[in-house]
Amino acid sequence: xxxxxxxxxxxxxxxxxxxxxxxxxxxxxxxxxxxxxxxxxxxxxxxxxxxxxxxxxxxxxxxxxxxxxxxxxxxxxxxxxxxxxxxxxxxxxxxxxxxxxxxxxxxxxxxxxxxxxxxxxxxxxxxxxxxxxxxxxxxxxxxxxxxxxxxxxxxxxxxxxxxxxxxxxxxxxxxxxxxxxxxxxxxxxxxxxxxxxxxxxxxxxxxxxxxxxxxxxxxxxxxxxxxxxxxxxxxxxxxxxxxxxxxxxxxxxxxxxxxxxxxxxxxxxxxxxxxxxxxxxxxxxxxxxxxxxx
Length: 294
Description:
- This protein is an alpha+beta fold.
- Helix content is 61%, strand content 14%.
- It has helices spanning 46-56, 82-99, 107-111, 128-196, 205-219, 222-239, 246-266, 270-290, and strands at 7-15, 18-27, 32-37, 60-70, 78-80, 119-121.
- The strands form two sheets. Strands 1-2-4-3 form a four-stranded mixed beta sheet. A two-stranded antiparallel sheet has the order 5-6.
- Helix 1 (46-56) packs parallel to helix 4 (128-196) and helix 4 runs antiparallel to helix 8 (270-290).
- The chain starts with 6 loop residues before the first strand and ends with a helix.
């Protein structure tokens, strides 16, 4: 079963006066790139969380947003910056003495200073219980992301198999048209020679056969058709694998395009050229879809 590179998953939990919410989004990318955004005080968990994701995802850009906040019932420890407060009070006394006023800083004045100056929240050590819940919440969100990627991968698989059948039909019609190219050339060459020869004179059949044989060898697409048939079998095998195959499918599409382009360069018949154009169109559609496959 194919897996898409795009998906979304989220989960949330509450533990030890904290609420944890995890959101994961993945999009197409050539390699596996994981970016995790979480509060600074929990940064020590980033590497282990990244490894958890990389165990499940081998290709795609993965953005992880982790929100951790205290619940309303939790009290935040606040630290008073005593040296700074005393410095403000001493500065106020000096100003009052120089200006000859008796007004002093009140408690209200001190507490009205910016929190970051006088009062600051104490940084507590990360709670291991919360850390375990972050990891569990991530795994839950990751599980939902992977389910969405597999579901989209199933749709991609059905679509690719349908397009492969169209290519196989075009290949069959090319195989039918290929011999007619030489026959048409023989008839047109015979007609042209007949027009140029005097009345009643017959063309040299040996020379005619040689010219036709040279043309047949030059415009033969048998090898290209054989290789295309082999590529179709490989593509079907890749589509039915339950492992990351996006890069291999992309490479195989390049090889198939090369064979079809060669057939197009050799084709000199309208029907065959039309089949080549149709095949290139289907290959481009498959190539676009392959960009979504892990």
